[in-house]
Amino acid sequence: MQVILTAIYLLVLSGFATLHLTSAFAAEFDKIDLPGDYPDFVTLKGEIKLGDSERFIEVIGDSSKVTVILESPGGIVKDALEIGAEIRLRNYATMVSADTGCYSACALIWVAGARRYMDPNSEIGFHAVYHEENGELRESGMGNAEVGAFLTHLGLRIEAIRYFTLAGPKDLLLLSPDKARSLGIDVFEQSGSDFITPQQAPTVDEYASRFSLYLILGQRCSRYFGTNLEFAKRHAIRAAETAAGMVSNESWIELWMREGEVNKRRLQEMGSLAFCLDLESRFRLAGLDTGIYGPSFDCRKAATQTEIAICRTPSLWAPDNANAAIYFWMMNNVDVATKKRIRGVQRDWLQYRNTCGGNDACLIEVYGTRLRELGEIELPG
């Protein structure tokens, strides 16, 4: 798939297009419409002028999947922000290819991409918004405020916004893939045939999130999943050590404390069980080690279609462990009469669960319903 997209991308750069719009001294737009499920490509080249945002909308039409390839010295910020807003609204990707430049207002368009592609040899440069006054270039407070509001709306943190508006009108701060990640900006890095995704090279913000979540996994979720505290600490430390090479100690502490507060609020809002199940799902889907390596029972002794299906379906391991943990905790903390009722309810539920046979989707739904019913029970730990 990636090889095919790379070949198509090279065709676009070579000038093959089905639609071309240009006007004197304004940016040029080219578009290639691709068949099937492949994204269309749109190139934007040249200085961004008044009215280019309207022309951009005319070029993209009703395309649902587009990668916008940028090469521009910048230009009118108003039009750039409108183009960027349209790109984000439509969930388009942006790209700056190797040995080409995207500066000033163009860089604001690039950062608006739902997926941002760049090459180590791309030049993406930022500086403060300016206007000309009495023959001199002066920073525009109102313009920088508009840019700041736009970047905030994109979800960028204050450090990134400061970086983008720090350089003076005659200067540029260039953004490398590593610098982007240190500012919390996901990038897809492509160099020749090599392709690095945000999952393979996360931002420092992602490492701060992992640090916080692994600690919660060990401290709060182990009661449901049986995860080892030392295991969780090792992974938290690994995230911190990786992040240490990306930002200063002061910035790192600020980041993980911020993430810790966010996760603390989510934990209170969702409840421990729902939060822990969500955490496990996030880690598992990202290919991260959750410390959960099977269901609550020994898969070597799995005898029924349902048990075999649970053993082969990692997304069911955490729910099964949580269900078993809550059941055994209740059985160990109630009187004899209540224990008898709980055992009967559990037996009935297991029989109902087993009607799913080997149907994974059915089992996921049954476990989900069961755990929502048990979600009010907070296990001590």
Q: What does this protein structure show overall?
A:
Helix 15 runs antiparallel to helix 16. This protein has helices spanning 2-13, 52-60, 77-89, 105-111, 141-153, 158-164, 177-182, 204-219, 222-225, 229-244, 249-270, 272-285, 305-312, 317-331, 336-354, 360-374; strands spanning 19-21, 28-32, 40-45, 66-71, 93-96, 101-103, 115-118, 123-126, 130-133, 136-139, 173-174, 188-191, 194-196. It contains 16 helices and 13 strands. It is α/β, with parallel strands linked by helices and 381 residues long. The chain starts with a helix and ends in a 7-residue tail after the last helix. An 8-stranded mixed β-sheet has the order 1-2-3-4-5-7-12-13, sandwiched between helices. A 3-stranded mixed β-sheet has the order 6-8-11, with helices on one face. It has a two-stranded antiparallel sheet with strand order 9-10. The protein folds into 3 domains: 2-196, 2-enoyl-CoA Hydratase, Chain A, domain 1; 202-292; 294-381, no CATH class. Strand 9 (130-133) and strand 10 form a beta hairpin.
Short overview:
This protein has helices spanning 2-13, 52-60, 77-89, 105-111, 141-153, 158-164, 177-182, 204-219, 222-225, 229-244, 249-270, 272-285, 305-312, 317-331, 336-354, 360-374; strands at 19-21, 28-32, 40-45, 66-71, 93-96, 101-103, 115-118, 123-126, 130-133, 136-139, 173-174, 188-191, 194-196.
